[in-house]
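sorry for the late reply, my laptop died twice this morning and i had to redo everyting from scratch. anyway the thing you sent over, i finally got around to it. pasting the sequence first so we're on the same page, its 571 residues, then the predicted structure underneath. double check i copied it right bc i was rushing
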Amino acid sequence: MARKVFISVLGSTNYGECFYKKGEFKSAKVRYIQEATLDYLTKNEEWNENDEVLILVTDGDDGSKIKNWLDNGHINRDTKSIIELNGLKTRLENLQLPVQITPIEIPDGDTEEEIWQIFEKSFEQVEDEDELYFDITHGFRYLPMLILVLVNYSKFLKNIKVKSITYGNYEGRNKETNESPIIDLLPLSVLQDWTFAAGDYLKNGNIQPLQDLANSNLQPILREAEGTNIEASRLKQFINAIANCVEDFQMCRGMNIVQATNLKNAKPGEVKSIIKPLTPIIDKVKSEFDCFDSDKNVNNGFQAAKWSYDNGLFQQAATILQENITTFFCLRHNMKIDDENKRKCVNKAFNIKTNGNENNLDKWKVDIELIPLIKEILLDDNLNNNEIIDAFSNLTEVRNDFNHSGMRSRRPPMKPSDIKKNIKKCIDVFMRFTSNQTIKSPDRFKSNNCNPILINLSNHPSANWQPAQLEAASAYGEIIDIPFPEVDPTGDEEYIQLLCNEYVAKVMQYAEGCKPVVHLMGEMTFTFCLVKALQAKGIECIASTTERIVSEIGADYREVQFVFAKFRKYI
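ok and here's the structure:
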């Protein structure tokens, strides 16, 4: 289990007493913000003896160790007598916290060298996987900057998580009630995380950091306003939709790209951020997909090739681009885009044009039944464009060079710079060529795959099913597993509806062109909502029933087994 570590700098000022407040929490009347913050944190989360409180103190006669860590550190200016006050050490001990409390001596920080010493000393205290809680109320003016740098440095090197950054605003206290707010500064760190993650995506196409942030627990940083759970859910769905699109590009999923299977979910309406300054960052990520069509459109393939090239996925760019040209000609000639023989005809037509043997059937080397279709494609006016023929041929050469790692005895390997130039040139040629020839015909996108399928949407993968259940499932066709979502127990009805919409879309991706039945088992309110939605689309939903067998084992133990009985329809 990760260790919780609270880190705070103790100043040397003789602090005044006040009540600190955060939400419904109100501290006792205290001098030290550390005392109030730890009281708040340990009441809201479970801390134990493995966790640690680190108080950074300065040494010397005027340092915070003498002045505020130990008892009776201040002198009355007028009488020169000792002011009898408990130091922070005593105050924390009186709280009887179930944690280790350790003072860490640091230099005063008057020079650049001492600032680096403070940084290194702080970093030394952090262990791998720690969960850090910072209080930055007291200390040096550069402390917030040092903390932010320490946070990012530790995230990278020690994989820590920042759970809290707080500031006790004593100067902003209510003079009548003597109450001071504890201000939550964690959203500033979170905003920085999102900024870095969005930058990584926009520059390199790496969506994983954004997806990790969206799928993490956003609850601690939600604004205290109505609808924030819904906004968080929408943001998560949007980022996950982008991730699905990126995966399509990375894995060259041409059918998904052209049919906008995931692209339609990556072009939502308004997506509000849970941190207001994050909105422009989300808008910038959204704008990346403005050039894509949320409906079925072959031009999505060309845009995907360009996106892949711009993000350094050069092999994917070449593959998607050439296959999409084949798709483009399939659609022009009213052929299904996943018919392997039809695609071969298009590629053969390009090959014939490239080699200049369109009038020599003996050199075509194709099955006789394909000849009429190849002749039809050869009559396409676009195949009289030498620029198109050359670009297609260049792409073939690039793909072969990629696929064989440049290790072909008959041809010297292409230089990386030449590969990139060739791909860029081909993208420009084909996008210019197709800019005025948009083809958008859903009828010709339909897959040949109309097989029956059983979509298993549950917490029990079909690989773990009992033989009897697998045998019963075989009557429904091929099994496709979709993991059941983690349903937030605090989510409201609108949250359930949004989650339901997301999973309807997932099911429909597999259902298109097939005969689906959905095996649905899980959290009751979500399951009920999803069953209704799928049934409204004419999709049959089933549940699995089991027999509960109890065996007595000794006086105090029972063994319970659940044995599959049958599949039963939701009615």
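Confidence is low (pLDDT under 50) at residues 219-227, 440-448.
thats about all i looked at so far, will dig more tmrw
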